[in-house]
Specification:
277 residues; alpha/beta; Ubiquitin-like (UB roll); Cytidine Deaminase, domain 2; 2 domains; 7 helices; 15 strands
Length: 277
């Protein structure tokens, strides 16, 4: 677990008392490609190699999902946490110039922070999608909750998970940042040859444009979150053919794009009524 015990003063509305809480650890991770600086990102220690692989994929720097690049640990801090990684890549596998694009500190809570411009990609919209049964979504989040060990102790981490068409977990990753958790999931899927089996990504927070963009690049047709989506996230998901679901809690959810890809008799009746003049 990437948590530590910290002391504090607790106020109960009347008086103060000393308390101790588990707090999520946040460290800086430097990522370079062939020893050329790419980014410094704030993250929760653990699965750093998956984070680096996923981030390079979703930033479209290293897009080949079959080539297994060597990722070397360059530095650790006094606690043994990895603080610097280098990805070794032949020039032909580097999809675009990355120097100067994201070579400043990137916050754990923001996937766009540290970038000089928004990436525009021409990924073809997903189609011929096998429908997903609506009842599986709640089961996915139940699995996420069961595996959020750091969150259960500290309340300070997000989680992302990847699931197959039957709702089986492929991987669940935690991080202090939503975007990092998603990148760790995608990196894990790529490194273990599971990307094509992944049909739904779940996230424990809200859905932004950047998270939809990561899912789009990975070719995953379903995205579900506990919290709210942004308007740009909905528009991006609709154009990409992604079924975006939000407020997935207490046996409820709201579908904001491509609802036709969810299997449920009541849903189909409701959509038919909306379409009927």
């Amino acid at each position: 677990m990437a948590i530590a015990l910290y002391s504090g003063m607790f106020f109960n509305g009347n008086e103060f008392s000393k308390t101790e809480d588990f707090i999520s650890i946040e460290t800086a991770l430097r990522i370079s490609v062939n020893l050329k600086p790419f980014t410094v990102t704030m993250q929760t220690p653990g699965n750093e190699i998956d984070l680096a692989r996923g981030l390079l994929f979703t930033e479209q720097i290293f897009s080949d999902i079959h080539y297994q690049a060597a990722i070397n640990i360059l530095e650790r801090d006094d606690n043994g946490y990895i603080t610097s990684l280098d990805v070794q890549l032949p020039a032909e596998y580097i999809s675009k110039d990355f120097e100067g694009k994201r070579n400043v500190i990137s916050g754990s809570s923001c996937g766009v922070c540290g970038k000089t411009e928004l990436d525009e990609n021409n990924i073809q919209a997903l189609n011929n999608i096998e429908p997903l049964e609506a009842s599986l979504v709640q089961k996915m989040f139940h699995q996420i909750h069961e595996e959020q060990k750091d969150f259960q102790k500290s309340g300070g981490t997000h989680a992302a998970g990847a699931f197959d068409q039957q709702g089986n977990s492929l991987t669940i990753q935690e991080d202090i940042g939503r975007h990092n958790a998603v990148d760790k999931v995608i990196g894990y899927l790529i490194r273990n040859g599971l990307l094509q089996k992944a049909k739904c990504i779940t996230v424990s927070g809200r859905i932004s444009y950047e998270i939809v963009n990561k899912i789009k690049l990975a070719g995953i047709p379903f995205l579900a979150a506990v919290s709210a989506p942004s308007s740009l996230a909905i528009n991006n998901a609709q154009e990409a053919g992604i079924c975006l679901m939000a407020f997935c809690r207490n046996q409820k959810l709201t579908i904001y794009s491509n609802a036709q890809n969810i299997v449920n008799a009541n849903l189909q009746q409701a959509v038919a009524k909306i379409k009927t003049p």
